[in-house]
Amino acid sequence: MEKNETYIAHVKDERTQSVEEHSENVGKKSALEAKKSGLENVLLLTGLLHDCGKCVNEFRDYILHKSEDERYHKKINHSSAGARYLFEMVQEPKDIHESLARQLIAYAIISHHGLSDCVNIEKEDCFSRRIYPGKKYEAQYQTTVKNLDFLSRKDIQALFQKAKEEIAIYLEQLEKISLEMKKDMVDFKEENETINFLAGCLQRLILSFLVDADWQDTTEFMDGIKKEKLSENALVSKWELYQQRLEEHLKGLKEDSPIAYLRSEMSDCCLEFAKHGNGIYKLAIPTGGGKTLAGLRYALELAKKEKKQHIYYIAPYLSILEQNAEEIKKILCDDEFILEYHSNIIQIEEKGEEDDKYRLFADDWSEPVI
Question: pLDDT tens digits, residue range 220-248?
Fold first, then answer.
């Protein structure tokens, strides 16, 4: 057994998941989700570093014996080691981009089990205190660094440079948005208030990507269910299949009345409108005019054309949600990839494999149609 494989992130029954495996999984999962947002390398680095503080004997003993022996219930500060490791890799940031990238990644790491204050009400620096928690944890940290076989300093530094470039692009965009906000909003009084607010939004986005991937990989390990997401090509094939089934359904509808003719004409207009691409549009069709299927034609055509990942159907009434979910499932005939998610969906614990699958799917909303 390799040295780093002896350090354990999770345990379930007789199975264990190593810190290396979990870190690499979280890095890859979060990077994949963040790719379209332009934060792929930021999240790959964040995911790789987020749990490296578990690479100590104390944590391994704790997680193997936590339910049976109080002697192993020692305080282990595993969530700050990765942030400190990054700070020591980039000790003197060369510019604002390096400084911001280092802070954003470090904050996501220290907060992946709960938000952490950067400054408290007395204006004390809590951020630095979380990264350098004091002599009590110094020995644990030094041991962690020695045990990071799977994270070389050279690789971390190279990955950080790519992450910094992504943050630089974001910062340039945020500065432009900040100028527009200051023109239109009176709530922001000080010069830096808008850019700081937007940087905070970017921070929450990074943290969300990390937490989502962390929970997903942990859930997959604990439940023993590996969920593979559809590739881009597989998604396009899904949209084409759904289009084919919807068109077959529409051809089977009777057009023997003026209302049926108008319904068909409006549906054709919706399909044609997909050429206009992304936007916020209003579909003003009276009750009974076929809005659900007309809107679905538009959505499927746009999803196929622009390689979208999801189609969401959102409504304010449960009766409408249930009615439309039933109709869409009946037409598309692919329940496994259509997630119905609202407060009338009740899953009974310990129901079996199907319940486990639903819970896993509902955790990350990764189905094409939701």
Answer: 898 887 777 788 899 999 999 999 999 99
Q: How far apart are CA 353 and CA 177, in angstroms?
A: 47
| Cβ neighbours of 210 (radius 10 Å) | 27
The continuous run of DSSP H or E covering 8 comes out as strand 8-12
End-to-end CA distance of the chain: 43
| Backbone φ, ψ for residue 12 (5° rounding) | -145, 115
Residue 119 pairs in a beta bridge with 125
Instruction: State pLDDT tens for residues 141-188.
Output: 898 888 888 888 889 999 999 999 999 999 999 988 888 887 766 565
User: H/E/C letters for each residue in 307-325?
Assistant: CCCCECCCCCCHHHHHHHH
CA-wise closest residue to 356 among 224, 229, 228: 224
- Mapping DSSP to helix (H, G, I), strand (E, B) and coil, where does residue 19 land? helix
Read off φ and ψ for residue 280, nearest 5 degrees.
Answer: -110, 115
Q: How many CA atoms, within 13 angstroms, populate the side-chain half-sphere of residue 160?
A: 28
pTM for this model (two decimals):
0.79
Match 């998941």 to its residue by tokens: 17
**Residues 126, 127, 133, CA angle at the centre, nearest 5°?**
75
DSSP string, 49-74: HTTGGG-SHHHHHHHHHTTT-GGG--
